[in-house]
Amino acid sequence: MSFYTSLNGLKNAQTDLGVISHNIANSETNGFKKSRTEFADIVAGSAFTNPKLIQGIGATVEAINQNFSQGAIEQTGSALDVAVNGDGFFTTKSSLTGDTFYTRNGSFSVDGGGFIQDGSENRLQVFPTDATGNVTGTTLQDAQIPATNAGGAEFAGVTVAENGNVTASYADGTNTVIGKVAIGTFISPGGLRQEGSSNWSATGLSGAATYGQPGNGQYGSLLSGALERSNVDIAEELVGLITAQRNFQANAKAIDTATQISQTIINLRT
């Protein structure tokens, strides 16, 4: 039994090492959220087993939990670099599949069609507004900047305000609000499925997204010209790496000890 107990320990330590390595590898990934491996002990016994004699049979990985604490904010000066200051996620929709994603990485740009997107064909979702920024509906839509305004003037620039208003500027000096950034929150963000590229998707564990305006109630405000960096603490991860390595070595030593005991028994002579 000790062989299998220690073997499970080796597998658990390897999982822990993999999670920590993933955190370290993404220490410079904008919007990345670190994860932590949670373990649970395993015991086995029947109703007829003396509770004082029940022996543990090892540990198992109970969960790999994500930590959604705020990462450091870096000033970039780019108008379409936006960080969420507080709770919530940007919402994007894939122009290729129509899938909806949620992200804390606010590094956006404008494509040839005037859509504000994340570089992977995922378009930023906004509340529809009138030209002055008043929200006119709750159905989200793609953030798209018209190439010219009603007067025929060409597009000159875009800004994102703290309240989420996306304002397009034109060569004739006029400004038009094309939408208000929608912030999505979840009852259980830890239940979100990681999709890569700092994107998550909703699951039954996370619940459906609830949308609101930036800076309103529980929804975080926006910081324009800034990006949220990874929330990975390298020093903390390196300490965890050493602990996981020692755990792996200890379980390997336990297997070695069990092997020596078995060999001793086999070599017994009557």
From TrEMBL:
SUPFAM superfamilies xrefs: Flagellar hook protein flgE
Official protein name in the record: Flagellar hook protein FlgE
Location in or out of the cell: Bacterial flagellum basal body
One protein family per Pfam: Flg_bbr_C
Domain of life: Bacteria
Domain Flagellar basal-body/hook protein C-terminal as annotated: residue spans: 224-268
Domain Flagellar hook protein FlgE/F/G-like D1, chain residue ranges per copy: 83-168
Alphabetized UniProt keyword annotations: Bacterial flagellum, Cell projection, Cilium, Flagellum
Entry similarity comment: Belongs to the flagella basal body rod proteins family.
Domain Flagellar basal body rod protein N-terminal: 3-33
The protein's role, per its UniProt record: A flexible structure which links the flagellar filament to the drive apparatus in the basal body.
InterPro entries: Flag_bb_rod_N, Flagellar_FlgE/F/G, Flg_bb/hook_C_dom, FlgE/F/G-like, LlgE_F_G-like_D1
